[in-house]
Structures are given as C-alpha cells and as structure tokens.
UniProtKB/TrEMBL annotation:
Organism: Letharia lupina
Low complexity: bias regions: 233-244
Source domain of life: Eukaryota
Listed name of the protein: Ankyrin repeat protein
Region of interest (Disordered), residue spans: 230-258, 289-321
Length: 321
C-alpha cells in the first residue's frame, strides 16, 4: 500500500511505482508564487536582485549569531520557499527566467553566496533536485553558466533524486520523439553532463538507466547516441574536450518534482498533466510576477518584453535554449 503524501515528504528513500506517481502529481501542480511565498526577510529581496541588500541582510544575520558566519550560512541554506520547498540557489535560477532583464544581478548574488557567504550549493527541494540538476535538465532550463557555478562550488553531477534518477534522466527524456530540434537541445545538455563527469549507468527507482533510455530512442533519432559515442571516445582516448574533470561519488539523495515521462518504449506513461510541469509552472510564476509589476515603475536594469510577446512561451517549447 502506498504511503500518504505527508509520509513521502518526510521520507528520503527512492520512490517508484504508485508512490512515485503520487509525488509526481503533487509536484506537477504545486509551484512557488512570489506574492504568497516570498514574504520572509530573505524572500522579499529576490525580486529586485539587489546584491547589496542581500549582503547587508546576511551580515545582520552574522551579527545575530555573534560573528559566526558559518551559522548564518547554514541558516540560509536551510530556508526553503513554496510548497515544493525550493532552496536559495533554485530560487535565483528561477528568477533569471522570471525576470531576465536582471539575470546577471541574480548570477552576482549566487556568486557572492558561493564565494563569500559560503552557503552550500547542494540544497534540494521536496523532490531532492539541486540547482545544478535543474540548470541542466533543459525542462525548462539549460543554463550552462549557472550550472558551472554550482559545479565549481562542489555540486554533485551524479546526484540522485527521489525517483533514483539523475539529471541525465531528465535530459534524455525527449517528449517529442520525432522532433530533431528537441533532440539537438537535449544533446547539448547531455554533452555538458558527460564532460563534467556524468555517468549513464545509474538506474532510477524503476530500474531504468540513462543508457537504456538513449538506446530506446535510436529508432527515431540518433543525436543522443552520437553525443555519447563522441564523448566516450574522446574520454577513452584521453582527449576529453570538456572540462577534464572526473565524476564525484554518487550521492543517493532525493529530487523529483519536475520530470517528464520516460521514453514510451521502456516505461509506463504518466498522466498528461505530469509532462513538463517545470515549464508550465514557470509560466504561471512569470505571469503572476509581471502582472504584479505592470502597475509600478520597473526596477533599474529591467528590460520590458516586446509588445505581444509572452515570456512564458519564449521560455517553453519552441524557444528553449
């Protein structure tokens, strides 16, 4: 018998079957609403991307802990926002899309948190997904710059989520099986993953590895298989053209929220509402954010969208990086 959601949230084991479905369904409908969820002393600082405000507030927390910066960093590390309990770096990644005119303000905050405040980068949301995993999943993000920042700070490229999957499970689950452009985008993300020490042989909770997913797609598109062959040949020959790093030990931890269905030939189909929820929920956040800002002056550096352009649609589907 499957456990109720409350028990799943409190657990840390790998989910599969009905329990995985239950968690996916929750994560596909729950999302962070900035108006509702960013009301605490840190949360209110995200919208304008003001690094100085973040620095000043963090220093006030250091003073609260009598000069012990480590405790202030751990306090921020443990703060989670919204119903899926998103950690600080994932919120910053989301805001680079919600408010793209301030992208490098958010990048600067992330860099400061990594380099100076020393806030750990391996925080997870309710599903166990880290900022690194989100930034290369290409659903809806493929942000190599943010991913590199997380990786350089120690994020585990092979970290497992609540489904037992790793980032490459999301990358290689190409929903549009006959869409060559979608496969090419996934190929770029997969190459980044492999060149940074990612492995293809970790199985998720249902016993499916990334290598198996890629093999199942060969009949419709060989792009991903070509990426794997090329990178593995380079690595075996000692001519890795990527970062040259090696994989870190796999951490058996937990994300889940936003994963698409596995390739149709090798797994069960999930309800349509579970497909690509990252994209839909980001769109909802964007709409709420911009409707709130419509009647007040824009923050310095904010770039307005051209008339008639829906940022949500720009980020999703056809115009994803």
């Amino acid at each position: 018998m499957s456990r109720p959601l409350g028990q799943l949230f409190a657990s840390s084991d790998i989910l599969s079957g009905e329990e995985a479905m239950k968690m996916r369904n929750y994560c596909s409908t729950a999302y962070m609403d900035p108006d509702r969820d960013l009301k605490d002393s840190y949360g209110i600082l995200f919208e304008d991307g003001n690094l100085t405000a973040f620095q000043e507030h963090f220093q006030s927390r250091v003073q609260h802990f009598e000069g012990r910066q480590y405790e202030a960093a751990q306090e921020l590390f443990k703060v989670k926002w919204g119903p899926t309990r998103i950690p600080v770096y994932v919120v910053l990644l989301a805001f680079t899309s919600i408010n793209p005119g301030l992208r490098y303000y958010y990048i600067a905050i992330a860099e400061w948190l990594v380099d100076t405040a020393k806030v750990p980068v391996d925080g997870t949301d309710i599903s166990g997904t880290t900022a690194l995993m989100h930034s290369i999943s290409q659903k809806p993000y493929f942000d190599p710059e943010f991913a590199q920042l997380m990786f350089d700070a120690g994020a585990d490229i092979n970290r497992r989520d609540r489904f037992g999957g790793i980032a490459a499970h999301d990358i290689t689950t190409v929903q549009l099986l006959y869409d060559h452009v979608a496969h090419e985008k996934a190929g770029r993300a997969l190459q980044w993953f492999l060149e940074h020490g990612g492995t293809l042989d970790i199985e998720d909770g249902d016993g499916i590895s990334v290598r198996r997913i890629i093999a199942s797609l060969e009949g419709t598109d060989r792009t991903l298989k070509g990426v794997v062959d090329r990178v593995e040949q380079q690595q075996s020959g000692g001519s890795n053209t990527g970062s040259g790093v090696t994989a870190r030990p796999t951490a058996r931890n937990s994300p889940c929220p936003w994963q698409e269905e596995r390739a149709l030939s090798i797994t069960k189909q999930f309800p349509r509402e579970c497909h690509d929820p990252d994209a839909r929920l980001t769109n909802l956040m964007i709409r709420k954010f911009h409707s709130r800002k419509r009647n007040r002056p824009a923050s310095p550096g904010t770039s307005a969208l051209p008339k008639g352009v829906d940022l949500g649609q720009m980020l999703l589907g056809k115009t994803r990086k």
